[in-house]
Design a protein that fits this description.
The chain is α+β, with helices and mostly antiparallel strands. Helix content is 22%, strand content 39%. The chain contains five helices and nine strands. A hairpin with a 3-residue loop joins β4 and β5.
Length: 153
């Protein structure tokens, strides 16, 4: 599996990291702790998720998986024949999440990992909106951070 860090991509100070994930063979990651909110857009292959809150499910190419901060999950990335597993990951720091979802904690606890199927998210390309905001060097940091809130809203 490969991933580029936010430092390598030059997005320091934005509170957002975006990076490609590729994997040539199936692999399982057990009891993986996800410290900040993580969006995973599956491009090719599938991802099996075992979540204590939501049980087990499989995300397919085109699906968005939303991992809340503090999630502990088991993940299996599954390539398809003749192609690597590919996904794009976006991490949002706590400050950005709090700016959108501030308020009293939910009485029901964590919603667990959520999946948005391809048909429901096809009209809005979160990865491209995020990438454009991160790469626009003409924007002051405060405006850039504000634009990065759009996908969360």
């Amino acid at each position: 599996m490969t991933a580029q860090s936010a430092e390598q991509l030059g997005f320091q100070g934005t509170g957002v990291s975006i990076f490609p994930i590729t994997q040539a063979t199936a692999a399982t990651f057990t009891d993986l702790f996800i410290g900040v909110t993580f969006l995973c857009f599956i491009c090719a292959g599938s991802k099996r998720v075992v979540c204590p809150v939501n049980g087990e499910f499989v995300g397919e190419a085109g699906d968005l998986l939303i991992f809340p901060s503090g999630s502990i999950v088991t993940l299996e990335n599954r390539p398809v024949s003749a192609a690597n597993y590919r996904a794009t990951g976006i991490y949002f720091d706590h400050e950005l999440i709090d700016a959108v979802f501030a308020g009293p904690p939910q009485a029901s606890g964590s919603p667990g990992v959520q999946i948005v199927r391809q048909a429901a998210s096809a009209d809005y390309d979160v990865v491209e909106v995020t990438r454009q905001a991160l790469h626009d060097d003409t924007l002051p940091l405060s405006v850039k951070r504000h634009r990065l809130l759009e996908p969360l809203v």
